[in-house]
Amino acid sequence: MPLQPNYLTPYAIIFIFFISSVDCRSTACNKLDQDSLWSSFNMPSSPLNWSSDDCCQWEGITCDMSGRVARVSLPSKGLKGYIFSSSSLRNLTHLTHLNLSHNSLTGSLDQTGFFLSLSHLEILDLSYNFLSGELPFSLSSVNIRMLDLSSNHFHGAIPSSFFQQAWNLTSFNVSNNTFAGSIPSSICTRSYPLIRLLDFSFNKFNGSISGGIGECSKLEVLRAGYNNLSGILPDDIYSASALEEIVLPHNSIYGSISERVVNLTNLRILDLYSNELSGALPTSIGKLSKLQFMLLHFNNLEGYLPPSLMNCTSIVELNLVRNHLEGNISTLNFSKLGQLTKLDLGINYFTGILPLSLYSCKSLKAIRLSKNDLEGQIQPEIRSLKLLSFLSLSYTRLTNVTRAIQILMGCKRLRALLLSSSFHLAENFPADYGMVDFDGFQNLQFLDLANCELMGQIPIWLSKLKKLEVLELGYNRITGSIPSWLGNLPKLFYLGLYFNQLSGEFPKEICRLPSLVSDQSTDQVDDYLELPIYESRNTIFVQYTLSYFPRGIEIQNNTITGSLPIEIGELQLLQILSISGNNFSGNIPEEISNLKNLEELDLSMNHFSGTIPQSLAALTFLKSFNASYNDFEGQIPIGTQLQSFSASAFEGNPKLCGAPLPNHCLPINDNDADKNSQYMESEKKIDWFHISVALGFITGFLGVFGPLYNQAWRYAYFNFLDNLWNRLYSLYC
Question: Based on the structure, what is the number of domains in the chain?
């Protein structure tokens, strides 16, 4: 059957024309609103292209049926200036939605009467600008539902009257400003039953969290982290049964977590890390069946992990690092936690063996059990964790390091392996036998086997780790020479071989490490690790990501001989060079001045001779320098940064003179030259005898008492002890 052509009756055409005419007229932009918009936003640098005669057709503008501007949505448009300083914006009296987020707006809201005129406003988003000043006395709009002032420069206290008319407020975000004073207690009265989100994070609020939170019956998200809050958690917070997030990290909140927390059956995130919480975890915490993130690290929690915790089957991340928790961890059954991706129980007092039930958590990507009293061996079942990329078992009591490495090579996605201070039976370093043809560790970026009393030589299988960025092998008994092939590892930017028994010369191939030569020689550091790396410094834990890990070569306290190669100057990205306590000799190469990023340089306790290069003045980032106990001579370069270091950085060099040393450089005549040379040679011999005593203090009586008879020896001796002690307690976990 042939298709019939579509056609409209004359009446239909007239009707459509009438509707179109009415619609056109009803949406025509109000002249006052158009002028107000033009005056407010059409700045010389404005990127907006508002060319139409009808402002309702302009980008980001929506009008109501009467042609009045109802919505202005101009996020991320490059807007700049003081748009709130004029009265123009206040003329948009029908405005319900205003979004000017992610621009560069400046000025204040408290002096403009901005809120007073916009009584119909429902949504206001001014986040990510440069607005400043204090908040006005109150919000005049009873219709306001969402207010986002985050990431600006607002300051002062939030007036308790600010919310007095905000009957319909559901979301209030003032995070990342510099607000101070207390969090307003009036925000959660029965007048505001609709509030769902409160975010006060990253400000300077102080005092305790006032009671009344429990009266916000629909509150789902409470965030106030990174402030100066103190006191205990208000008891009525456990009555806010709709709560899904409690996020209050980095404050000084103390006391315990009440057993009443199990009333919060909708809770998904409990984030209270880095506070001063104490007491035991609630015994019935397993009733929180929806809990996904439990972040309570860096507190003072104590007692045992409640067995009911294993009933939190939705948990994704469990972090209890650095508390005072105890108990036999191997008695816990982790097998129910099928969603668990990150487990961090490090730096506690747990005992037992590595729990086999962990290997049933197939989603696990990161495990840290370091600094606990755990023992045993790594079992082959760990290879069933196909997603595992981070494993830290440092400061435990493991055995059979070779088998452990062989097993862990089967974890194909492993990127960080930290086993420092975990093996204490003087085992051999896992040798090449059975590993030369391996294909494991192909994604490994961080390998830490420091302080494991490992013996033998550095094995060649390490040369296959093409993604390795950090290699920590300090405090072992490794012998032989430093392999030249280390210089071929394309990603390596930190090499720690300190306090071993290495000998031979420093290979110049190390000076060609691509990641230390040039930013362009290799890709940027792949920074992401599932968990941060902690370094303990005098009871303070410093947190590292790979991109902030120092670029360095630390080979101090070995028996390396020969000269420092001139190729050292190629390592332009090097930040730390520590070669003290070796048998280096010869002059310091002038090329060392090419290390423009060098922050720490330790040449002490070697046999370097000649003058200290004047070119060291070019190392403007140098924060730490030590050239003591060598055979340098002549004047310390004048007018350089070297004068800012103490005299102890230069002592033990009898031929060295000038500031900061107390002995001035005086000219000597030729007749006295031979006599002075003989005297200096005698002094040098005596000095090196005492240095050798200081270095060998652990071998007998003279190592302890000999240096105490001479001030210079005492300094070298105790400085050596301090460095050894600090280094031992600054290993990673």
Answer: 1
